[in-house]
Amino acid sequence: MRCLRSCVILAITVIAAFHLFDPQAAHASRKDIVVMNNGDRFTGEVKSLQNGILYVKMDYVAENIGVDWAQVSRVESSAIYQITFVNGIHVTGKLKRESPEDAKGKDVVIETQAGSTRVSAANVAEISTQKETVWRQLTGSLDAGYSFTSGNNQATINNDASVNYNTVNWSAGVALSTSYSGQSQASRTNRIDGTLTGARFLNHNSYLGFYNDYLHSTQQDLDLRTTVGGGYGRYWIRTNTTGLRWLAGAVYTRESFSTTTQPSDSNVEGLLGVTYDAYRFRIGELHLQGLLFPGLTDSGRVRATTSDSLKIKLVNNFYLSLDFWDNYDSRPPATAKKNELGISSSIGWTF
Question: Mean pLDDT throughout 242-263?
Answer without folding.
Answer: 88
